[in-house]
TrEMBL record, chain A:
Subunit relationships: F-type ATPases have 2 components, F(1) - the catalytic core - and F(0) - the membrane proton channel. F(1) has five subunits: alpha(3), beta(3), gamma(1), delta(1), epsilon(1). F(0) has three main subunits: a(1), b(2) and c(10-14). The alpha and beta chains form an alternating ring which encloses part of the gamma chain. F(1) is attached to F(0) by a central stalk formed by the gamma and epsilon chains, while a peripheral stalk is formed by the delta and b chains. F-type ATPases have 2 components, F(1) - the catalytic core - and F(0) - the membrane proton channel. F(1) has five subunits: alpha(3), beta(3), gamma(1), delta(1), epsilon(1). F(0) has four main subunits: a(1), b(2) and c(10-14). The alpha and beta chains form an alternating ring which encloses part of the gamma chain. F(1) is attached to F(0) by a central stalk formed by the gamma and epsilon chains, while a peripheral stalk is formed by the delta and b chains.
Species, as recorded: Kriegella aquimaris
Coiled coil residues, start to end: 46-91
Annotated family: Belongs to the ATPase B chain family.
Protein name: ATP synthase subunit b
Topology relative to the membrane: Single-pass membrane protein
Transmembrane region(s): 6-27
Keywords: ATP synthesis, Cell membrane, CF(0), Coiled coil, Hydrogen ion transport, Ion transport, Membrane, Transmembrane, Transmembrane helix, Transport
Molecular function terms, GO-annotated: proton-transporting ATP synthase activity, rotational mechanism; proton-transporting ATPase activity, rotational mechanism
GO cellular component: endomembrane system; plasma membrane; proton-transporting ATP synthase complex
UniProtKB/TrEMBL annotation, chain B:
Family of this protein: Belongs to the ATPase A chain family.
Protein name per its UniProtKB record: ATP synthase subunit a
SUPFAM superfamilies the UniProt entry points to: F1F0 ATP synthase subunit A (SSF81336)
Organism: Kriegella aquimaris
UniProt keyword annotations, A-Z: ATP synthesis, Cell membrane, CF(0), Hydrogen ion transport, Ion transport, Membrane, Signal, Transmembrane, Transmembrane helix, Transport
Subcellular location: Cell membrane; Membrane
Amino acid sequence: MDKLINDFSFGLFIWQIVLFVLLLFLLRKFAWKPILNAVNDREEGIKTALASAEEAKKEMQNVTADSEKLLKEARAERESMLKEAREIKNKMIADSKEQAKTEGDKMIKQAQAAIESEKKAAVADIKNQVAELSIEIAEKVIKEQLSNKDKQLKLVDDMLGDIKLN
Amino acid sequence: MRITFLFKFLLTAALFLGNNTFAKETDSEPAKDTKAEIKEYIEHHLQDSHDFNLFSNTDENGEVHHYGFPLPVILWDDGLKVFSSSEFHHGETVAEVDGSHYKLYHSKIYKTDANGTISYDEEHHPTNVRPLDFSITKSVVMMLVTGLLLIWLFSSLAKSYSKNGAIPKGAGRFFEPIVLYIRDDIAIANIGEKKYKRYMPFLLTVFFFIWFLNMFGLTPLGVNVTGNIAVTTALAVIVFLITNFTGTKDYWKHIFDPLGDGMPWFGKMIIYIILVPIEILGLFIKPFALLIRLYANMTAGHVVLMSLIGLIFIFKSWVGGPLSFGLSFAISMIELLVALLQAYIFTMLAALYFGFASEEHDHNDEPELAHL
């Protein structure tokens, strides 16, 4: 310890303090600050670059996903539109078929009804005419037959004979 | 990078091991046996020096030649005295400046009379007056060189960032990971994301300063700056000042009221008579441990390494040479690691202390790592 204290050189101590402090300030100004700033900037740069790359990747994925989704949607829409069109077509055909059928049926019915009524009318007309004719004939016959007594008697006899037969 | 680094390291180690000519140095004192000579040489090496001596040798006539260059001596002794250290002639002559006489004795400057007489007390310590010595010594030169090297290296690294779009080039590729390591694993890990920034310049400077000086210590230049107690003390004082000037309210509360509301005041009084002085002592022990650790590690490394080299001259046989070469080579490898490790430990512990000082939450459950 005695030797240590004896070895201690005050001048060297002062020189060391002065030189070291000077060195510290010079290095701080000309070396450490620029170096540490440059390194920090670089690290920040790397960090932001990595982050933006990640961002871009994500965005890219989003875009791809979006376009895929859009494509899918468009495809689905096309499909549905086609399907709808087909349905509409089918429905239209079916509808018109149906309509035609009902219309036809209706017309047939009407025609039938008309025919029926015509027929009825015709039959009634014929019946009337037949009745009139028969009456006329009968009138004529009776007029003819009842022009003499014999014939009137004979008729009565015939008629009575018919009734007997029945 | 690794291969060239290894190559440089091997070269350094080889050069260092080649500096055994150092051990041949003899001072003006009479011839001694080899062991004492080596011991003295090592002691001399560990100390700061007033001239930059690269190597010395003794010629056939027993005359010592020193190769190197002198450094300015700056003394404060009733006024500023500046002269070249060559006037001491490596301690052999008395330097006369403005009517005062100075002599170099064991790397220290003493005021003497014109004949350079040094008087001793009973413990053989010189009793002469020691003027305040602010000389540009070998250590100061090395600190200046290291400082300039650091400024050049790291300001060019800073510039290369702005030039190359934040990509390091050349040496920056080697140093940038270290800077980032200090930031992420030392500063942020110990101080926290919020406050680490203000301590970063100090941590980076102290790390590279210590590391580079440690590495210079392993070169054949023969410098031992970080193994100098004055240097490590200065560093520790700076750590101490930063720690306590940036201390938060919680930090001081932890020192003067460590138990907080956990105990009634009369209970605390009894404990605090012991606890508070310990905490206050701890304030000083922490940086003191830093300065001693660095000093002791670097000095020990140098002593071991130089002693192993000294073995060559003691064994003087064909076994001793290669053996001590191999051993000192192995120790050089370890010292290379120690150079980095001690810089790391100093920085790490400084960051830890800063972390304690700038903490702002409840301290009661903190781990007691401070007394490492």
